[in-house]
Every structure is written in C-alpha cells, then in structure tokens.
Amino acid sequence: MDFQWLKSYMPGSLYGRAILILLLPVISVLLVVSVVFVQRHFDGVTSQMTTSVSREVRLMLESGLPPEELATSQMAQTLLIQVERVAPEAVPQEDSWQWYDFTGPIVVRELRRFVPRLLSVQLPDDDFVRMYFLYDDGPVQMSLDRRRVSASNPHQLLVNMVVFATLMTMIAYVYLRNQLRPITRLARAAEAFGKGRRVDYRPAGAVEVKAAGQAFVEMRDRIERQIEQRTLMLSGVSHDLRTPLTRLKLGLSMIDADERVDMERDVEDMERLITEFLDFARGAKQGEMEKVDPGVLVTQIVQDAARAGNAVELIRIDGQGPSRDGVMLRRDAVRRAVENLINNAVRYGNTAEVSVQMQPDAIVICVEDDGPGIPEDQRDEALKPFSRLDKSRNQNLGSGVGLGLAIAADIARNHGGAIVLGESERLGGLRAEFQITP
Ligand SMILES: Nc1ncnc2c1ncn2[C@@H]1O[C@H](COP(=O)(O)OP(=O)(O)OP(=O)(O)O)[C@@H](O)[C@H]1O
Ligand SMILES: [Mg+2]
C-alpha cells in the first residue's frame, strides 16, 4: 500500500500535525462513545420504559370505561395519566418529535407496537407525551409525563461531551504549545546560524528536545572555534611571511641585474597572494550588519569599477523588494563579493553587465559577461577555494589565486544565500548570480 497521496492532505507545520494528533483521537472517542451509548443505553432504556407505560395505557383502554369516567377514575389517578376529549380537528395526523430528541422515534415506535387504536403520538417538548385515540364518539387525548418513557434530556450528554472535549482540547493545546516552543526556537537558532548570525539560544523543553539543543550548541561552538582557528592560522602565516618578503624586496632593489625585474614581479605576486589569503581568512565576517539599499550599493560598486577602466555597466534595478530604505547586510563584504564577480567578468571576458533584482524575500545581484563562460560540470569546482579552471586559458590573464568565487560564495552563505553560476543569454559568457535572503 502506498500512502504517499495522504501526505498532501497532512498539515505541514508541527503545530498543525500536533493538533491533528490531538484532535483525531478525541473526536473518534467522542463519536464512538456517543454512538455506542445512545444506541445501547438510550435505546434499551427507552424501549423498556415505553413498553411498561404502554401496558398501563392498554390497561386504561381495555377497562371499557367511557372517557369521562376514565378521566376521573382511580386508575387514571394512580397511573398518572390525564384523559380528555378533543375536537377531531385538533388531532394531528402525523407523529412528531423535536429534531434534537433522539429517543423520540423509539418512544413512538414502541407505543405503536403495543397500544391499539392509536391515531398519533406527539412529543412536543421535554415534558409531555400526548397520545390520540379513536373512540366511537370522537377522539380522546391521553397525556403523561415524558420522564416516564425515556431518560430525561439525553442530548445533554452530547452537549456536555462537546463542551468538555473543547475545554480539554484547549488546555491540551496550551500545554502542547509550551512543548513545541523549544523546537521552533531551536529551528530558529539553527537557521540563523546557517546564515552567519548568532542568536541567543538556551536548550530547554523535553529531554529529547533539550538534548538536541545541547548538541546544536556544542556543534555551533565547535564550528565557531574552527573558523576562528582557520582565521588565526591563515592570517598568522600570511602576516609572518610579509616581513621576510619586505626584506627580500629591499635586498632585490640593491641588486643590479637583468633578472631583477622578473624577481621583483615574483615578489609582488607573492605579496598580492598573501593579501588575498588574509582577506579570505578574515572571511565573510567582515563588518557588521547594517541597513543598506542594495540598489545604491551596486550602483556605487559599478561606478568605481568603471572608473578603474573596466567595461562594466549597470543595466537595471528591478522590483521594489524589501523596501527601498534598505536591508540588513554587511556592506563591505557584499561589496567585495560583487567586485570579485565583476573582476572575473572583465578578466575572462571583455565587457560586463550588472543587474539587481529585489524580490520580497531575496536580493539577486547578477553579473554577466561575454567571455567563454564555465561549462556546467565545472561550476561547482570553480566555487571551491584555490580552484582555477582550464589553466592554459588563464595563464596570460594574470595570476589569480582561485579565491575570488570562493570568497563571494562564503559571503553569500553568510547572508543566507548562495552564488549561482549559469550561462548568460544576453552576452554568451558566464552569468554569476549573487543571491541573498536578508
Ligand atoms: N566570468 C568567468 N568566465 C569564465 N571563467 C571564469 C569566470 N569567473 C571565474 N572563472 C573560472 O573560475 C575559476 C575560479 O575563479 P575565481 O574567481 O575563484 O579565481 P580566479 O579568478 O582564478 O582568482 P582570483 O579571483 O582569486 O584572483 C577561474 O580560474 C576561472 O577559470
Ligand atoms: Mg577571480
């Protein structure tokens, strides 16, 4: 059996499912209890009571007394049955009872079974049973207390059940909410950490949830320690390398030889690499979150890049998105990421086009170029640190380290997003999207 189709009917949220789990048994128990109880108990009791009342009514009918005498007879007084004549037009044709009166039909059924000459039975309310009989000289009405034929107010059982079930469900819901809250809080903390934010979180709740929370806290601490160590190590090494490099440069400037120029270029390359390592090590943690208008920021970046002599253009800014007055992001980090993408575009292609899309829950900064692009199966590779594709192609394009895309991806992840590489439809080269969900 495949229950997959059931899934689409299940509520997705934890609350929804918990409510379902809570309500389903309650409602089923209510239904079963009411059906069984009403069927067995009320049915049985009512028909027993009605049968014995029927016998009393028959006794009266079979006494042979005319209605007037019957009404005042000892028998009527003892059996507590009122007898009176009624006008023929006042006799209802049909049996009737109230819609909520579910023992009514049973009463009528039993009376009809045992009492002869019955015209109709009326159960107008909770208080009386009225029966109409045909005597030779006109119809007669006999009435008796309703409580003699059925247990009183049987629908109150249901009313009580519904009221208490609702009350209990409400109480259960309050408890449940308190149990679920630690889970949603844990989910929120984990989500924030994934986006590079640290929110206050203290493990709480049921033992299992608390254990999961504790595990999360330990994991978060370890990851943070590792990042810190990586930063320390990389920046330590890079920093320490700087001093001997500076000495080397000084030494080189004293030499008077042809190779000097080449060697100096090598040293400069090394210095540049070290700077990039340092940047990478500092990672996406650069800067604090602040309110920034992405449109304005990208406009500035593109202007700066163009001023530096690159063929780059901002072609459009789309959408109102998360309001013009800005979203929370690390300005310098985002600037770096977009600059890296633009640098790649103008390095591997000739011209670059930048566009910004502001959607309600995401910001996409797209950089397209007219270069060779990256084949689909190498895009993941390109995003990794120190990876440079197609070495022969890159050689005469200056020596990159292979960190540009990795740094940009790091920054995007830190803003709850990612770098998505694709093919540019407009220019034919690479289309690099910097997507974030602030
Ligand atoms: N716009 C592009 N068009 C074609 N290939 C690209 C493009 N951007 C990146 N690549 C390929 O992806 C590789 C990784 O890019 P990345 O920016 O990470 O490093 P890099 O540009 O080589 O060095 P760095 O940016 O650190 O100076 C590049 O070596 C290049 O082969
Ligand atoms: Mg690059």
Task: Give a verbal description of the structure.
The chain has three domains: 14-153, 2-Layer Sandwich (Beta-Lactamase); 187-285, Helix Hairpins (Orthogonal Bundle), CATH 1.10.287.130; 286-436, 2-Layer Sandwich (Heat Shock Protein 90), CATH 3.30.565. The chain is 55% helix and 16% strand. It has 13 helices and twelve strands. The chain has helices at 4-7, 14-62, 67-72, 74-79, 104-114, 155-194, 207-254, 260-282, 294-307, 331-348, 379-383, 391-394, 404-414, and strands at residues 82-85, 96-97, 118-123, 128-135, 138-145, 289-292, 312-318, 327-330, 352-359, 362-369, 418-423, 430-436. A five-stranded mixed sheet has the order 1-5-4-3-2. A five-stranded mixed sheet has the order 7-9-10-12-11, with helices on one face. The model has no long low-confidence stretch (mean pLDDT 86). Bound molecules: adenosine-5'-triphosphate and magnesium ion (MG). Adenosine-5'-triphosphate (ATP) binds at residues 276, 340, 344-345, 348-349, 369, 371-374, 382, 387-390, 394, 400-406, 429-430.
